[in-house]
Amino acid sequence: MNPLAIIATLVPTGLLQAQPTPEVRERIEELGATIQGLAAQQQELAQAAGLDTAATASRLEIFHGYIGVLIVAFLVTLLTTPIMRRLAIANGIIDKPDGDRKIHKMPIAYLGGVAVFLGLVGGILFSYLAVAFPNWGIMQWHSTAHMVSDDPTNVFPLPVPISVLLGLTVIMLVGLFDDVIGLEPRLKIGGQLFAAAALAYDSVGVQVAKGVLSPTLGEWLNNPDLKYSIATGFMIPLFGEMLPTNEPGIVIDLIYCAGTAIIAIFVLGACNASNLLDGLDGLLSGTTAICAAALLVVALTLAVRDDGPRDAQRIILSLALLGACLGFLPHNFNPASIFLGDCGSLLMGYATIVIVLTLGDTGRTHLVLAGLVIYSIPIMDTCLAIVRRKMAGKKLSDPDADHLHHMLKRTLGVKGAVFSLYGIGILFGALGVAMSLWRARVTYALAGMLIAYIAVISIKLARRKQLEDAMTLRTPNTPSTPSTPSTPRAPAPKPLPHADEKPKDHAKPA
């Protein structure tokens, strides 16, 4: 605003009607120059502190600054996938069709998950290079109050934690060993829990419980932080610390403990949910790309608002996951030349849930709910599988052909089923983004109604198929001409084999 206009609002109207004297005019001009100088100083101080108050960057401008992560992840995955395919075929790491659930006509190579892992790590390492070599100008950080650096000439937001890279590596190795040599379920679960513990150690996602416990249990106990110090009189190894009273003891953080349990549940659920959804060519890689794109929109929105220190981390992880999925999809879409395997399906579930967990880093639990809505298809398919197998009296680990994609495939074919689930994924992604922007009750209601509708239809169709299968098993075989009774004939004697001919071996029933 013009300095004269500002001063005019502070001066009584009667004084303005008269012609100002030269002294008054000079005084006004001096005040205007002083105001402009103070504004310039305020802007310089804000920029030095990492607060750019001149203009807030838009989502698109922030996206342009980080787009190198997307390109690197895409190219690395796109180029390494054929290499992984050749390695898999050369070492016999292939998936053979069985005519039941594995309907492909020829053996397909595994190890696609290794290429996705290389793309993810490549995108993250690209962001590390931007921190280590700022003069290269390969990335433009968005303006935030959470810049860190020991060098005033090189300020940057917090990079992706090493614990996330460790978790990605552990999940990839667990799935890779399962694809190559096969692992017992308890070993796979142990690896997933180790990856979850790595996140908890670095406090990635532990604040998810804060938005629920602090305003409820914390207010009731008059302790919003839910931290309790216990003096022990001696230092306990690994867990002990000096209390504010200068006594050795331990600090019990209930929010951290609850957040750690939530991380373990989320990691186990997401890894296995994505694994169950990986049943058709291009299905999991495409739906995960849609989830990553929706989570990217949420991450960019939080960066515009300067939500917290993990804004840049969310953007980098979302872009790396999106680029890796898009780079793998051309090789994996029907007809697929390579499969993700457990290595890739577990990895995609883990990477997605890490981004969802970081949404609650500042205690905004409703953002985590929005992220779970974006990830609704794997969650819903897994929940329906549990209900369906319980209704059929089967074990939870028993495979079946009644998942969402199986039911759609029987009606629409492979590509039709995949595109249908892509459309449903886009709808859930839009609902999740809307929930993160407005927290509207209408959005929650629409998401709940859509999930309930799909759940009821899926259970009904699965139940109908079970009844039809049961009736087929109970119905006896009827002759082709029931009106004319057929007289049983004696079986013809089998010809004796020649002296130089051996009897054929009959396959034993499996």
How would you sum up this structure, described in words?
The chain is globular, with a radius of gyration of 31 Å. The longest helix has 35 residues, at 404-438. β4 and β5 (248-253) form a beta hairpin. The strands form 2 sheets. It has a 3-stranded antiparallel β-sheet. A two-stranded antiparallel sheet has the order 1-2. The protein is mainly alpha-helical. The protein has helices at 3-10, 13-17, 22-48, 59-90, 112-132, 162-180, 185-201, 210-220, 254-277, 283-305, 311-332, 341-358, 365-374, 376-391, 404-438, 441-474, and strands spanning 94-95, 108-109, 227-231, 241-242, 248-253. The chain has 16 helices and 5 strands.
Annotation, overall tally of beta strands: 5
Distance between the termini: 84 Å
Helix content: 55-70%
Class inferred from helices and paired strands: mainly alpha
List keywords for this structure.
single chain; 510 residues; 63% helix; disordered C terminus
Task: Give the SSE layout.
Elements lengths: L2 H8 L2 H5 L4 H27 L10 H32 L3 E2 L12 E2 L2 H21 L29 H19 L4 H17 L8 H11 L6 E5 L9 E2 L5 E6 H24 L5 H23 L5 H22 L8 H18 L6 H10 L1 H16 L12 H35 L2 H34 L36
Antiparallel strand pairs: 1-2, 3-5, 4-5
Brief digest:
This protein has 16 helices and five strands. By secondary structure, the chain is mainly α. Mean pLDDT is 80; it is low at 10-17, 478-487 and 496-510.
